[in-house]
């Protein structure tokens, strides 16, 4: 299963990718990590990337694509991958398309985690990490509590700090860049019949359930370690698949319908489910 997850900073993309990695067993291919590794290992691509970074230039897409190509050749990527941090703009999306086509490994799905921008700002503003042990908390969604409130490093309460780029001014700028550069990818992938939009303004487990539904991977839904504690998920899992799909679609539509300012996006998001029309669109599409 070859997937691109799209989502603004604060949309929960990192958390959901992690769950895919753990539960579905496909690697997350992060272009940031690839760059760091290539530089550290001193490969030819790494050397060129370092040269660009040292002279303050952006690393060219062709270098990043070269690293992705190398990474996809490794055995663990045979079953699929989640691409993280790439593509971030249309030029990169086109280039990726060409690369994957050449490798005969086209994407299976592109999932957009949709969260209202005010909620994104709120979530990011709540992020804190402990200066001593590095654990990440969110004052709104996952504050330190109970036994977890004690820092394993110091034995005292965690010393919570905010990352410098999580302040409100920087967040607004990061969201603006996302809207300008990355949001156009939504239409790009919709036109290819690959896009699934998920309402990600819900609890983490619920978003995972919706992701499982969209990607049709039941294994993603039920974590082994917390199975007993998740009755809701179990109940959902017992429903026949078709009913479940209808229920989720209804719920997604209902929760999207309320805020007024998302009208255009909502309307577009309501276009027929990608899965249902993917075959038809693929046949019609004139890819290159
Ligand atoms: Zn700590």
Tell me the count of domains: 2
Please give the CATH architecture of the largest domain. 3-Layer(aba) Sandwich
Class of secondary structure makeup: alpha/beta
What percent of residues are in strands?
A: 5-15%
**Count of beta strands:** 8
CATH-level-4 superfamily name of the largest domain: P-loop containing nucleotide triphosphate hydrolases
Mean pLDDT score, rounded? 79
SSE run: EHEHHHEHEHEEEHHEHHHHH
Q: Helical amount among residues, as a percent range?
A: 40-55%
What does the largest sheet look like? 5 strands, parallel
Radius of gyration: 20 Å
Highest-level CATH class of the largest domain:
Alpha Beta
User: What's the total helix number?
Assistant: 13
Features:
288 residues, alpha/beta, Rossmann fold, five-stranded parallel β-sheet, three-stranded antiparallel β-sheet, 8 strands, 51% helix, globular, disordered C terminus, binds zinc ion
Descriptive notes:
The chain is an alpha/beta fold and 288 residues long. The protein folds into 2 domains: 2-26 and 79-119 and 168-284, P-loop containing nucleotide triphosphate hydrolases (Rossmann fold, 3-Layer(aba) Sandwich), CATH 3.40.50; 127-161, no CATH class. It has 13 helices and 8 strands. The protein has a 5-stranded parallel sheet, sandwiched between helices. Helix 2 (31-41) crosses helix 3 (44-54), helix 3 runs antiparallel to helix 4 (61-72) and helix 4 (61-72) packs parallel to helix 5 (90-102). The longest helix has 17 residues, at 241-257. The relative contact order is 0.13. Zinc ion binds at residues 130, 132-133, 135, 151, 153, 158.
């Amino acid at each position: 299963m070859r997937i691109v997850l799209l989502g603004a900073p604060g949309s929960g993309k990192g958390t959901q990718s992690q769950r895919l990695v753990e539960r579905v067993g496909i690697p997350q291919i992060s272009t940031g990590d690839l760059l760091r590794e290539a530089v550290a290992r001193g490969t030819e691509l790494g050397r060129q990337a370092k040269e660009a970074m040292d002279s303050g230039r952006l690393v060219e897409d062709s270098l990043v694509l070269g690293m992705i190509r190398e990474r996809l050749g490794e055995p663990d990527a045979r079953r699929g991958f989640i691409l993280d941090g790439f593509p971030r703009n249309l030029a990169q999306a086109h280039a990726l398309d060409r690369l994957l086509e050449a490798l005969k490994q086209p994407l299976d799905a592109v999932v957009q985690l949709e969260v209202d921008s005010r909620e994104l700002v709120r979530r990011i503003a709540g992020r804190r990490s402990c200066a001593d042990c590095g654990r990440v908390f969110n004052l709104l969604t996952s504050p330190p509590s109970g036994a977890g409130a004690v820092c394993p490093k110091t034995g005292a309460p965690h010393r919570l700090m905010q990352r410098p780029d999580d302040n409100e001014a920087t967040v607004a700028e990061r969201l603006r860049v996302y809207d300008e550069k990355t949001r156009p990818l939504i239409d790009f992938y919709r036109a290819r019949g690959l896009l699934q939009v998920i309402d990600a303004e819900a609890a983490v487990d619920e978003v995972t359930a919706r992701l499982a539904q969209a990607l049709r991977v039941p294994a993603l839904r039920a974590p082994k370690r917390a199975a007993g504690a998740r009755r809701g998920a179990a109940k959902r899992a017992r429903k026949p698949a078709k009913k479940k799909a209808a229920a989720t679609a209804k719920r997604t539509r209902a929760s999207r319908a309320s805020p007024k300012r998302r009208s255009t996006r909502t309307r577009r998001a309501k276009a027929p489910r990608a899965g249902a029309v993917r075959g038809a669109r693929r046949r019609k599409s004139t890819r290159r």
